[in-house]
Design brief:
- Two copies of one chain form a homodimer.
- The first copy, chain A, is α/β, with parallel strands linked by helices.
- The first copy, chain A, folds into two domains: 128 residues, ornithine cyclodeaminase, domain 1 (2-Layer Sandwich); 169 residues, NAD(P)-binding Rossmann-like Domain (Rossmann fold, 3-Layer(aba) Sandwich), CATH 3.40.50.720.
- Chain A has an eight-stranded parallel sheet.
């Protein structure tokens, strides 16, 4: 009779990741995430990529986002349910994910990704803005003041030199919450009463709204020469934020073109509308901003590679800080062909908590 | 300052599921799984279905298998690495999965699915054999004596009246392990020295081999009138078990045609080779076996709906037995728009393990 033990998978709970961010500091986490995402974008062609797999329902969407390189496979589970706040007191976006070994299929990390996604999305926005926004950008409009907005504001403050944020949300309580959270961060906060007011004079415009509708948050009349638009909330079929003429007036940059054509604000334009993939700008094979007056749009939808980067960053940081738990997600078998040993009746009927010597096995 | 707590996701570890099977009995678990899978096949059109998403590498494959009905979304992570036993002492197949609410996206169960998959696969084989094999079947050849073989043998013994199993594997140690595990189960076990010897005279032939090659385990000369072939191991592009002429000589039944055309033994035949989906036989809209002499093949690859059924069954059984744990996979926020509250520096710098009263918050 074989004895069976259970191998364990490292697990980072929502509490563990909050502790990581508190101990290391959000600033340092954003910086580390920017570096990890940038490094992975620079080896773009090493990844086996596909558009995410979405399951749409009346009230929202549930998506799986897989990706792999030669060593590691990663996937994220993420939902988007815009009515969750109002109807259920729940976040609109919740996520978790896994890193696994390509060589064996063994899961090597299970982690919360709700908090992590907010950090990786803001970090990705910075990776793009560093090559697309004017280097002297100092003010940012922030349209949509929900769960992700603090992370966007602080990422641009710490890593792009943004000194002033101009806030607008259709929910004034969300704006008040954001303004309150940004007190004592060094950011100058201006509360605005309309999108147009918030956008006026801003160097960068970040849209991070949640409605699953073809909304028109930004219209052409609001756009000024030289603006960089960081469009984060248009990320699902039927969920857009930018008037199509805003895209037409701009140079448009995307993460992974096949996915953004389906999910991004780009879904409003014909399939031959030219866009540039961000990795090409980062490695110098395509140009980003070419003039002070150029209008640039990062039509961000969130790509699986960024979650791969985020999982790696959180795994490494958890190891450094000695945080995390272990789960028996996968059985560990003395003889891997003997899965049945886990449930053999002799083990249950005659062996309760401890193993019997071989002679007593039936 | 909002206080944050962490909502918890029910979790069934490999140990929990082994305990469920030991307490309830494998027989009862197989029976319950057959009933659940059959019930879900009978409401086939209620499911939003897609072929699984596979990431292939040199040594194996990692797959995600999502599915949803109006109420629940489920997905399974599963690998297939045929060399894992020999190279790493690991199982060739490992799995876990999640049930989630379609209405909110909240994950409602995370469970191991390695052991569960073996049970659900055997249960699915029985669901098919009950309408495809001759009702008086008493002997079964079992080709491939690895991790899943005990579950196939015992499912057919308990639920189909199989009295004799005829075993063959290229690894004699695997056969010895299976024979040992089947002692005292009431099954007559015959150890054979070739596939041909095992198959001769058998009413049902189950193939459950692991090699990721276009193997030809069963050739036309081995097939006798009236046989039912339960083909379980040909489940991946480039991984087949049946000579194409075995399929041509038979009536072929599948789970979900678009997936089986890519992954099943069916991948060897042209796209217009006629097959019947199992759910149609179960609901009476198509015929199964039509004569004593007919040869039937269930070209099983494993479909996401069966994992949906398996997760439901394990969730309900765990509740009944009071088993399982809870994980903080998703943050629970007093204000769902205030994700930042989890990492607000005031919370970390001035509040260490316990919450401060509001007056002390910055």
């Amino acid at each position: 009779m074989t004895t069976t033990s259970l191998v364990s998978t490292p697990f980072l709970s929502a509490h563990d990741v909050a502790t990581i961010v508190q101990r290391k500091g959000l600033d340092a986490c954003l910086r580390g995430m920017v570096d990890t995402i940038q490094a992975d974008f620079l080896r773009w062609e090493a990844f086996d990529k596909c558009a995410r797999v979405a399951s749409h329902s009346t009230d929202g969407v549930i998506e799986l986002m897989p990706i792999a390189d030669d060593l590691s496979y990663a996937f994220k589970y993420v939902n988007g349910h815009p009515k969750n706040n109002a109807l259920h007191g729940l976040p609109t976006v919740m996520a978790f994910g896994v890193l696994a070994s390509v060589a064996t299929g063994v899961p090597e990390l299970l982690s919360e990704l709700t908090l992590t996604t907010a950090i990786r999305t803001a970090a990705t926005s910075v990776v793009a803005a560093r090559v697309l926004a004017r280097p002297n950008s100092r003010s940012m409009a922030l349209i949509g003041n929900g769960a992700q907005s603090e992370f966007q504001a602080l990422a641009f403050h710490h890593l792009m030199g943004i000194e002033e944020v101009r806030l607008f949300d259709t929910d004034p309580l969300a704006t008040a919450k954001l303004a309150d959270n940004l007190r004592s961060t060094g950011l100058k906060v201006v509360i605005c009463t309309s999108t147009a007011q918030a956008v006026r004079g801003a160097d960068i415009v970040t849209t991070v709204t949640a409605d699953k509708t073809n909304a028109t948050i930004l219209t052409p009349d609001m756009i000024e020469p030289g603006m960089h638009i960081n469009g984060v909330g248009g990320d699902c079929p039927g969920k857009t934020e930018l008037h199509p003429d805003v895209l037409r007036a701009a140079s448009v940059f995307v993460e992974y073109e096949p996915q953004t054509r389906i999910e991004g604000d780009l879904q409003q334009l014909p399939a031959d509308f030219a866009v540039t993939e961000l990795w090409q700008v980062l490695n110098g094979s395509a140009v980003g901003r070419t003039s002070e007056a150029q209008i640039t749009v990062f039509d961000s939808v969130g790509f699986a590679m960024e979650d791969y980067s985020a999982l790696r960053f959180m795994r490494d940081t958890a190891r450094e800080l000695g945080l995390g738990q272990r789960l028996a997600l996968i059985p560990d078998l003395a003889d891997p062909k003997d899965l049945y040993s886990l449930v053999r009746p002799t083990a249950s009927r005659f062996v309760a908590p401890v193993s019997l010597p071989d002679t007593q096995a039936a």
